[in-house]
Design brief:
The structure is a single chain. The protein is α/β, with parallel strands linked by helices. Helix content is 43%, strand content 14%.
Length: 270
Amino acid sequence: MANQLLKGKKGIIFGALNNMSIAWKVAERAHEEGAQLVLTNAPVAMRMGEINELAARVGQAPVIGADATNEQDLTRLIQESTAHFGGKIDFILHSIGMSPNVRKGRHYTEPNYEWYKQTLDISATSLHKVLGIAYRENAMNDWGSVVALTYIAAQRVFPDYNDMADAKALLESIARNFGYHYGVRNKVRINTISQSPTRTTAGSGVKGFDGFLGYADQMSPLGNADAGGCADYCIALFSDLTRFVTMQNLFHDGGFASMGVAPEVVKNFE
């Protein structure tokens, strides 16, 4: 049910590849709640995806291609977005993650270190660049909100998550540290959402994903949170209802993060 929680607000959504993407669901929900949007993704991802279909579904939102690791691209994105909106931005979703080492089957202990740097740049440092350019351009309204998507592998070991775990740990640190500086200057709040394993194009590429999906579902008292639920949580964080929530890593995982063991899982070993 739409309640116009984002009526009059303007935001940029990074990372909507197809209708399996959490970013896609967030864009749809933000539009339902009254927001105006700009959609963006890397040019190569835009060629692979269906972002123009999403743009038509969310009020003919402009699609502005940008490599999130490229400061010139990001500067152009921010400037063109504020020109389109006729003013500053109220919210940003960072839903970007990619590891060449994962894609090409390199073990965590023997990575290609050039690929490792790419993992960190694409999946984490890109958030710092987005925030830094928005900060420099004074592009966000006071009391704006930035959300980046993360995963509990930043705190715990999930061996097959590989170097993406390191990237997510860096991402969460950037959110905290930039959250201080942006909060002091503009009251902009920055949070990460640690989502349940979710069947997206990126998530499904992790080795053993299907087995872990079932394990996490059994371990979580409420079961796994789906992409639609994550979108709802993002909307809440973009809205004025969460004006004093910042610098937090917020678990949206059905209770998984608080569990030690679940009887449903123990039964598999009895």
